[in-house]
């Protein structure tokens, strides 16, 4: 199954980007039969939790994903992550690993900016106290904008002359320059539509170009802000400040190290814990609830008992979870991703005659406003499609827009129409 879109993780040194990446990819209970979690040093597989189609039809016990897993109708779908390296102020001028940072970044469809909200690391990731992490959010965006604007202005004279000479339209002219960032004509068109510019491209002022570049950055690189290290005593005041400055719908509070610790303890048999949950059960908790065997859990030493209790108080009960699972969910939300379930049989939801009992084996994530034809091209490439079936064998038109619960279970019949 295709795994795009690609989500990029960015963050300065010591912000917790590596811990966040590890917590997103360490899907110990989610891997199923997926063969790996790391693709190469920069790319990895994370797991996005969604509501599976199997729950609509009461088929949870027969849902057997080829990749990821499905537990009681809650499905973990593999999604590709990119570790974007070298983020320091001045990256667009080549500081740090600036050129690599920007080259990696252009492949991403959305970004997760991991911010050390404790304020205990400065702009370059060195230990300090009292640093204002809202500054990091501002300069990440300014680096991307400066990079795109610098590249555009370097050629603006010739771009403008050619645009006039061929009587081009702004979408085509800008897409010729923005394609290197993984843009499409649709992205450029949405950018210009939002600005509703009245002056022709050849008359754009520097201020107008700035507005275009800023709007394009928002459209091409939608960003989730993952405020990490929320359990630190200094985090609260920084969270409050950032919440007033940024769109709260794009902020997730998280503690990556807490998530990694809980998963490790659960894997070793010391606690019961479901990823993304508010609750942790220890042996003592289960005994107190009437289970004399304590659920078969191991006895913890005092150090780990105290750490679990502190983690419950400082993170789980206070914030509702470690937040890590919600980071990917929020990235999927800003991209408007829609899960689509390709099947062989749209009545039984099986994928093949040899495995007729297992249902909904595959799931692919597509971007909002994708048509049935877009899904077909993503899955089948250039293979000829005779017709497409929806639930119950009904024919589905290629121009239908897919959505959750709407034309999201499909069977593509190969052949000439």
UniProtKB/TrEMBL annotation:
MF-aspect GO terms: ATP hydrolysis activity; GTP binding
Keywords: GTP-binding, Hydrolase, Nucleotide-binding
Protein name listed in UniProt: P-loop containing nucleoside triphosphate hydrolase protein
Pfam families: MMR_HSR1 (PF01926), YGR210-like_G4 (PF08438)
GO cellular component assignments: cytoplasm
Highest taxon in the source lineage: Eukaryota
Ranges for domain OBG-type G: 5-274
Organism whose genome encodes this protein: Cercophora scortea
Family annotation (PANTHER family): OBG GTPASE FAMILY (PTHR23305), OBG-TYPE G DOMAIN-CONTAINING PROTEIN (PTHR23305:SF1)
């Amino acid at each position: 199954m295709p795994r795009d879109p690609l989500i990029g993780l960015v963050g300065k040194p010591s912000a917790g980007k590596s811990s966040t990446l590890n917590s997103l990819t360490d899907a110990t209970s989610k891997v199923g039969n997926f063969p790996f979690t790391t693709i190469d040093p920069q790319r990895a597989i994370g797991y996005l939790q969604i509501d599976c189609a199997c729950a609509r039809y009461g088929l949870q016990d027969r849902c057997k994903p080829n990749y990821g897993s499905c537990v009681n109708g809650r499905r973990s779908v593999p999604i590709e992550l990119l570790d974007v390296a070298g983020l320091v102020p001045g990256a667009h001028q080549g500081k740090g690993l600036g050129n690599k940072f920007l080259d990696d970044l252009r492949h991403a469809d959305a970004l997760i900016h991991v911010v050390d909200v404790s304020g205990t690391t400065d702009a370059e990731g060195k230990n300090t106290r009292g640093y204002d992490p809202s500054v990091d959010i501002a300069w990440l965006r300014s680096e991307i904008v400066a990079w795109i604007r610098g590249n555009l202005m370097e050629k603006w004279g010739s771009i403008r002359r050619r645009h006039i000479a061929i009587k081009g339209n702004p979408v085509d002219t800008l897409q010729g320059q923005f394609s290197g960032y993984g843009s499409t004509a649709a992205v450029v068109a949405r950018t210009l539509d939002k600005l509703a510019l009245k002056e022709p491209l050849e008359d754009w002022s520097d201020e107008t170009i700035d507005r275009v570049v800023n709007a394009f950055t928002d459209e091409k690189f939608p960003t989730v802000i993952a405020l990490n290290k929320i359990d630190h005593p200094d985090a609260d005041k920084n969270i409050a400040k950032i919440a007033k400055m940024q769109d709260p719908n794009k902020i997730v509070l998280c503690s990556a190290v807490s998530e990694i610790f809980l998963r490790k303890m659960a894997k070793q048999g010391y606690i019961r814990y479901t990823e993304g949950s508010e609750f942790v059960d220890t042996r003592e908790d289960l005994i107190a609830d009437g289970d004399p065997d304590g659920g078969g859990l191991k006895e913890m030493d005092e150090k780990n008992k105290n750490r679990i209790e502190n983690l419950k108080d400082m993170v789980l009960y206070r914030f509702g979870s470690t937040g890590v699972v919600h980071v990917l969910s929020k990235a999927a939300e800003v991209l408007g991703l829609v899960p689509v379930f390709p099947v062989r049989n749209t009545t039984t939801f099986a994928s093949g005659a040899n495995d007729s009992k297992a249902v909904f084996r595959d799931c692919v994530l597509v971007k909002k406003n994708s048509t049935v034809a877009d899904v077909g091209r993503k899955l089948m490439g250039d293979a000829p499609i005779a017709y497409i079936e929806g639930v119950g064998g009904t024919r589905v038109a290629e121009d239908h827009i897919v959505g959750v619960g709407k034309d999201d279970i499909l069977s593509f019949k190969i052949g000439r129409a």
